[in-house]
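### Sample
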Amino acid sequence: MKRDKILNLSSFLLASLFSYAAGSKLLDVQKFQVELGQSEMLNFIAVPVSFIIPVVEILLAILVFVPGYRLVGMYASFSLMIVFTTYIIIIMNYSYYIPCSCGGVLAKLGWREHLFFNGAFILVALAGILSHHDIDKKDLICKPRQL
């Protein structure tokens, strides 16, 4: 039962994060495009990326709630958070100008706090993956039929 709660909490937290992040980006997509364009790594693909990222975030928010796709959503969420965190580390270490393309409350975080925030959500996704695997193993155990 505890594993179910961990899985449900992980799903809720990830879906909330991705829904909020996608919504804040889509509400002011022009600002998001400008901020992406200020990044040395993304300036040449800022426009397509400004639409791709929110769409991916919305898809992940849905996947982590649909039982048949929840594990895929957890792995994809884990991977996306690793990519976002890697991007932040690269920008912090190799860029002269550090643009913030995050929306809403997240834009108010410093880069170090943002790394901790991302790290926490990497752990949330990992907890969801591990609890999902544990639940699946219990379901695979053959139980004697009752007559």
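The radius of gyration is 18 Å. This sample (Methylamine utilisation protein MauE domain-containing protein) is used throughout the tutorial notebook.
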